[in-house]
Design a protein that fits this description.
heterodimer; A: mainly alpha; Cytochrome Bc1 Complex, Chain C; 2 domains; two-stranded antiparallel ribbon; 2 strands; globular; B: 24 helices; 62% helix
Chain lengths: 378, 392
């Protein structure tokens, strides 16, 4: 809309408003969970906000809708601590371990930032996974929330990839060998394995693989996550929050309440991260030694099930077929909204999906346990 | 026909060494040898005429065939004791003189031809220099070379020698180092017995021989009362406690056993040995404890490089106390073990201080939660107010 010549120009906002579409910018910036309704980008900022606030304001900073914003908050903590770590980290095989040692030992609050980053990553993946299962069991993949489902499954997968690439960066014994173990699982997959091999150039990490992991970890994957979070909250804005029939809409209030909810939640997350980082810091281990495999190293926990699956099926089934099966299951998960043709969201309308869900969850837990046990005897 | 062809070939090439035409099996061995590389010909040892093309012609003149065992040392010495000839190779020329002083040489002079002559250790046609790992005189092959005769119980019984020194040596600390771990600085047989002048060391000389390598230990041993007493009693110094060929790695545990060989269980000497052992063990334990603490701190991680260096110093003092024990001077031993213990205690107390300091982290965490809970309480209050306002 063209600037209004009658508008008083004394305020900075007025001056800016004539030169930028502030409403559009505000709409974009707040679409990462801050502002859960759409804004009319054609109206001036103040009016658009006032109009949006006049409508009832569904807050998702409360259980059980909290998981999305919780993961966004954790992602923010990861971003901030990640930038701090990047100020000292050197991504070469020769210097990585020494730079992490300097960071966690000699730099003030370095070890604290390091451990907060690690704990935020663990919680992020766990919460994204719980969120996917909540969506599944509550039928949240049904129209019009197909996009929300696809985005939330992709969020989990990309966050897991970010975690996987991050584990190598300290270049310590555990991270190094865990990466090798994880690569063994991933490289065995028919298409995903080829893509991975193309990107990192081999199954054993050297300085170039470290550099590529670093690049993926600090640039590509965070950007992807940011895009996915944006899509996630945008679709929530457009289709609205989902309330099961009969559920009280107590979360519906005003923006001020939502803001308080957000701040309280952020403080609680911060408190938890500080506590975990202080009481349960990850152990500081020896530098990576490519010629000395430590005993009992397993892939990261989210790869244990795939690891066990690929190893436990009889060798009669060729490994590429096993890998393909695994990838097909994953693709089915992501594309679930287009596969489940049951008529509605209610539990009575999708008995089969619920039974299948429980069966898959149980199988996944069993395979994870098997994958965990596999390394115990070694 | 064939021999005529061979003859023709030999004539046309006019090789200076025609012997190998009829002795091709020797040629195979000789071509590998150092002598061949230095253009020594068959006639240097066997005499005769290397240019002759008939058997009679070759085996004529100075020809002596296979040299007799008793003549071999002197035969080799014609070149190897010749300073002019050996100078370009920078080889010693005293081997023959040494050999004549050795047990082998002395018995040979008495007409005993079973003793070792040059070829028994060096080989004959296929002689290789001792630097060559294939050579029978290469440092790691010497125990086997000596063992050829000295491991032969029947042969040795004739000289009143018992046991198999080669296998005993392989089981001992020096043999393990040399043969298993490939440490070429470890001694072989010749390091203690001599090579060409090989003779068993006599009482009074053992400390000199061991002292070639264990110089510090010998110095302290000479300061103590044992040297004079052992010489008087006819005991072979070092070997009296440490054994000979199969000597095990020395440790303070030896003090429990070897002293009792000569001294009574309740003697002052045995008491002294136990005092030295306790002093050492206690320091060793305390250094190990401090080391474990350093490891714990390094896993946090705290800065421990300085403590590691200091513990290294403590271990050096402890290590020094072992040779000093040979002087039987308790005060000297305790000054070293005391230094090790002192350093270990210092490191332990400083690190404990730092680890205690980390407890304040938990106090800090409590303070953090105190303020966080106050903030949360305030926020919840504001929120409740906002909820009340909105429902109005």
């Amino acid at each position: 809309m063209s600037p209004d010549p009658d508008r008083p120009r004394s305020s900075v906002r007025g001056w800016l408003e004539e030169r930028f579409n502030l409403t559009e910018m505000f709409s974009f910036l707040t679409s990462f969970g801050l502002f859960p309704t759409e804004l009319d980008a054609r109206r001036p900022l103040k009016e658009a906000i006032a109009e949006a606030l006049s409508r009832p304001f569904p807050s998702y900073a409360r259980w059980p809708r909290v998981l999305g914003i919780l993961s966004m908050l954790l992602f923010l903590f990861l971003g901030v601590t990640g930038v701090m770590l990047a100020l000292y980290y050197q991504p070469t095989a020769g210097d990585a371990y020494a730079s992490v040692t300097t960071l966690v030992r000699d730099v003030s609050f370095g070890s604290f930032v390091h451990h907060v980053h690690g704990w935020a990553a663990r919680l992020l993946i766990l919460i994204l996974l719980i969120r996917v299962w909540r969506f599944y069991f509550q039928g949240m993949y049904k129209g019009p929330r197909e996009a929300l489902w696809i985005v939330s499954t992709l969020l989990f997968l990309v966050a897991a990839a970010a975690d996987f690439t991050g584990r190598l960066l300290p270049w310590d014994q555990h991270g190094y060998w865990q990466t090798i173990r994880g690569m063994e699982v991933l490289v065995a997959l028919p298409v995903g394995g080829w893509v991975l091999t193309f990107f990192v150039g081999g199954a054993s990490p050297d300085t170039l693989v470290l550099l590529r992991f670093y690049f993926l970890h600090v640039v590509v994957l965070p950007l992807l996550l940011l895009c996915l979070f944006y899509l996630n909250f945008s679709t929530v804005r457009r289709v609205g929050l989902s309330f099961s029939p009969g559920e009280s809409r107590s979360g519906t209030g005003v923006f001020k309440v939502h803001l308080y909810n957000l701040v309280i939640l952020a403080l609680l997350v911060f408190g938890c991260l500080v506590t975990l980082a202080t009481l349960l810091p990850s152990p500081y281990l020896a530098a990576a030694d490519p010629f000395n495999t430590p005993a009992g190293v397993r892939p990261a926990w989210y790869l244990l099930a795939s690891h066990a699956f690929l190893q436990s099926i009889p060798t009669l089934v060729p490994s590429w077929l096993r890998g393909l099966l695994l990838e097909a299951i994953l693709a089915c998960c992501v594309l679930l909204p287009f596969l489940d043709r049951s008529p509605g969201r209610a539990a009575s309308q999708r008995r089969f999906a619920l039974i299948l869900g429980v069966a898959v969850l149980a199988l996944w837990l069993v395979f994870t346990w098997m994958g965990y046990r596999m390394e115990v005897g070694r | 026909m064939i021999s005529a062809l061979l003859l023709a070939a030999a004539l046309t090439t006019s090789s200076p060494n025609q012997c190998l035409l009829c002795h091709p099996d020797v040629r195979v061995l000789f071509d590998r040898s150092r002598h061949h590389a230095e253009e020594v010909t068959c006639t240097a040892c066997h005499g005769g005429n290397a240019q002759a093309i008939t058997v009679e012609g070759a085996h004529s003149g100075s020809f002596r065939g296979v040299p007799k065992r008793r003549d071999i040392p002197a035969l080799c010495a014609t070149c190897h004791s010749n300073v002019e000839k050996m100078r370009p190779y920078n080889l010693p020329t005293d081997q023959y003189a040494l050999y004549q002083t050795s047990r082998h040489g002395q018995l040979l002079a008495k007409g005993d031809e079973r003793v070792a002559v040059c070829i028994d250790c060096h080989g004959s046609h296929e002689i290789l220099p001792p630097e060559d790992p294939r050579s029978s005189t290469y440092v790691r092959n010497i125990p086997a070379t000596c063992g050829k005769c000295h491991g032969d119980a029947k042969l040795m019984a004739a000289y009143g020698l018992q046991g198999n020194p080669a296998t005993e040596f392989a089981a001992g600390v020096h043999g393990t180092l040399l043969l298993e771990k490939g440490n070429l600085a470890a001694p072989d047989c010749t390091r203690c017995h001599g090579a060409h002048g090989a003779t068993p060391p006599g009482v009074g000389d053992v400390d000199k021989i061991c002292g070639q390598c264990h110089a510090t230990t010998r110095t302290y041993f000479l300061q103590g009362p044992h040297k004079a007493a052992m010489d008087k009693a006819g005991l072979p110094e070092c070997a009296a406690c440490h054994d000979r060929h199969d000597n095990r790695p020395a440790d303070v545990g030896m003090l429990d056993k070897v002293c009792l060989n000569c001294h009574g269980a309740d003697s002052a000497q045995v008491k002294l040995s136990q005092q030295m052992k306790t002093s050492y063990s206690r320091a060793s334990e305390e250094i190990d404890q401090a080391h474990a603490l350093v490891q714990r701190a390094a896993a946090i991680p705290l800065y421990v490089e300085d403590y590691q260096a200091r513990l290294e110093e403590a271990r050096t003092a402890l290590l020094e106390s072992l040779p000093v024990m040979h002087s039987l001077n308790l005060a000297s031993v305790e000054s070293l073990t005391g230094r090790g213990r002192g350093i270990a205690r210092e490191v332990e107390s400083e690190l404990n201080g730092k680890l205690q300091g980390r407890r304040w982290l938990k106090v800090g965490l409590l303070v953090f939660w105190f303020y966080l809970l106050i903030t949360l309480a305030l926020l919840l209050r504001f929120r409740r107010k906002a909820v009340a306002e909105s429902s109005r």
